[in-house]
Amino acid sequence: MIRLQDVRRVFHQGRPDELVAVDDVTLDIADARITVLRGPSGSGKTSLLALVGCMARPTSGRIHVGDREVTSLPEHFLTEVRRLTFGFVFQQFHLVRGLTALENVMLPAYPLGGSRKALVARAQALLDRFGVGARAHARADWLSGGEAQRVAIARALVNDPRVVVADEPTAHLDSKLSAGFMDLVAALRDEGRTVVMASHDAIVYDSPLVDHVVSMRDGRIVRGEP
Amino acid sequence: MKRPRPPTWLERQRYLLDFTLSSLGRRKGKNLALAALYTLVVFALASVLLYTQALRSEAMRILEGAPDLVVQRVVAGRHDLIPGDRVERLSKIRGVQEARGRLWGYYYDASARANLTFLVPDRFWGKPGEVVIGEGVARTRLAVPGEPFPVLAADGEVVVLKVRETIPSFSELVSSDLVLLSEPDFRRLFGIPPGLFTDIALTVPNGKEVSTVAAKIRGQMPDTRPITRAEITRTYEAILDWRSGLVVLVLAAALLSFGIVAWDKASGLSADERREIGVLKAIGWDTSEVLAMKVWEGAVISLSAFLAGLLLAYFHVFVTPAPLLAPVLKGWSTIYPEFRLTPVLNPFIVSTLFLLTVVPYTVATVVPAWRAATTDPDEVMRS
Amino acid sequence: MRKSDRFLLFLALMLALLEVARLHALHRGRDRAEEVLAMTAMARRLGLTDLSLFTDARYARHPSQADRFAPFQDHPTSLEHFPSGSLVPPPAP
């Protein structure tokens, strides 16, 4: 369970261009469920996602990951929570160019040390699982959009996180690939992982596979909408 | 939350190094060219440093054998021959064990277009009519023992001496251009009447008394100039500093331009690199890990260049006869000593070079990454 | 072999070579010590005051000994045209 209490995130606070990205959000995210943050661009869903994923600290409010209060943790510990609990899939996938698909998948595990042989095996298994095993030694910039996303998902899973966070995961995929992506996400949930996504794509939020849809507008949660 | 076994420092650094090397591999040609240029700069600097250090230490050791005091006569501000009666007077000064008149001078050999140094040893072991020559003289004049050695005397006559032997070549650093001969031959050649000497060398056994003796000489013989051994060694230190300084000055332009290139290369954090750091942070890298990775990035290039440059310089200076530096010392000389220096590779030189090369480059790589590394990782999601 | 190991191996190799250079220096230094001693002895026996490094001009040959041939011998910026002359500073007072 990830619990957000009265969370606010303000950019450029006190300056003329002050922007309240997340405004007083209280939200529980259930374990082993698929939750979708839905809303138009600028509605604050990406900012909220960043807060959920411990990438940023709220300006005010509290966030609990499991029974651990993370808002007051020093940066180093927050990083540790982030890398052991969360896996991220970014809108632009953000693979590191010039590195191979395999190296990209391994990257989140580098700071953890550990056996490289085991890590390579784990990364290769993930690539195989998502059907891009043959592309393991291709450079990231040579991958197609669909391949890049699968590599990005594999990367998100390499540290075996309990929570997978995805920001507009279908933005660069056609309908067929998007549907395929939803199947992958369902499989992750069935393994017991929590999935949190931000999306304004109907294929995502209208999918029968999704357990919970949270609608957002202007940084707030809008209740009662389908 | 289950915490894995904390990784060892080395394991983590190996992973960071893996990433850095992959990352550098993306612009392989450019980075290799940079490393090569860098190596060349270190090589040039290290060659000068090693060479002058070795030459200096060798000079200091050899000049321990130089006379404690040399007394010259100065006439109208110019060095002149000194009368023999001064030998007696100088030897009576307290603290002086021995005074001896020295005879030496230069001879321009028109056929070889070289300046030779003629010197009468205290106890010349050859017979009158014989010369003992340095290896450099033997090389330029193609003279071998037993052959005639014609010299144009001061009165215009050609005096034919005979080469008795050559001075062993290991001592070329001091003996290359020497021609040793007997006193009568020397006086005959240069027309110096008996009773006059070039200068007078004194032996002062107690090192602490040298300056007192020198002061006394200046008082008793105002027309002389005493030169202590400390002044001789100081001159050499100054010369070698001067020469290495000059080379470094010539190198300075190259160094500076390299510095600019390196700074630009290392410090110009492109948008791509900035984004990359953001991604690393977002997927769970800590600020310290990003910075450690950047340290490696600087170190991979600069450490390789430092070690390669240093080794090449050592090889150049101490294994080969330093062909790239010799011309600086050689100047316009016709006779140039062939010598091998005693290698000097001390921690001082190594650490000086390290500080001059590896540290600035690494700092230039890390510092610009600092800001990018400390921004919130969610930056990457907002872009 | 993984990239970091290849690089660390390269570093180790370079350091080993540096150690070889250090040993070479030590070894050569020992070999050469006798020759240097012999040169010191020669300097003592012949009363040599200078190294025979700069033989391009008479006044450059013995920089530690002011010389009757040297133009402007007491002036730091002697006006002449030999390379060594522009490099060799006047003897320290």
Features:
heterotrimer; A: 226 residues; alpha/beta; Rossmann fold; six-stranded mixed beta sheet; 7 helices; 26% strand; C: 93 residues; mainly alpha; 2 domains; 0% strand; elongated
- Total helix count of chain A? 7
* Rg over alpha carbons of chain B: 31 Å
**Low-confidence spans of chain B: pLDDT under 50, at least 5 residues?**
none
Instruction: Count up the domains of chain A.
Output: 1
Please give the share of residues in helix of chain A.
25-40%
- Please state the average pLDDT score of chain B: 86
End-to-end C-alpha gap of chain B:
32 Å
By secondary-structure content and strand pairing, the structural class of chain B works out as alpha+beta
| Quaternary status | heterotrimer
Order of helices and strands of chain A: EEEHEEHEHHHEHEHEE
- Secondary structure: number of strands of chain A: 10
Radius of gyration of chain A: 17 Å
Q: What is the string of SSEs of chain B from the N terminus onward?
A: HHEEEHEEEHEEHEHEEHEHHHHHH
Q: State the fourth-level CATH superfamily of chain A.
A: P-loop containing nucleotide triphosphate hydrolases
Outline of chain A: globular
User: Sheet with the most strands of chain A?
Assistant: 6 strands, mixed
- Unreliable sequence segments of chain A: none
What does this structure look like?
The complex is a heterotrimer of chains A (226), B (383) and C (93). Chain A is globular. In chain A, 49% of the residues are buried. In chain A, the strands form two sheets. In chain A, strands 6-7-8-3-9-10 form a six-stranded mixed beta sheet, with helices on both faces. In chain A, 32% of the residues lie in helices and 26% in strands. Chain A has helices spanning 45-52, 75-85, 101-106, 116-129, 145-157, 175-190, 202-205; strands spanning 2-11, 19-29, 34-38, 60-65, 68-69, 86-89, 163-167, 194-199, 212-217, 220-222. In chain B, strand 4 (98-109) and strand 5 form a beta hairpin. Chain B has 13 helices and twelve strands. Chain B has 383 residues and is of the alpha+beta class. Chain B folds into two domains: 9-62 and 235-382, no CATH class; 69-203, Barwin-like endoglucanases (Beta Barrel). In chain C, 57% of the residues lie in helices and 0% in strands. The radius of gyration of chain C is 23 Å and the shape is elongated. Residues 68-82 of chain C have low confidence and may be disordered. Classes of the chains: A alpha/beta (226), B alpha+beta (383), C mainly alpha (93). At the A-B interface, helix 1 and helix 2 of A face helix 1, helix 9, helix 10 and helix 13 of B.
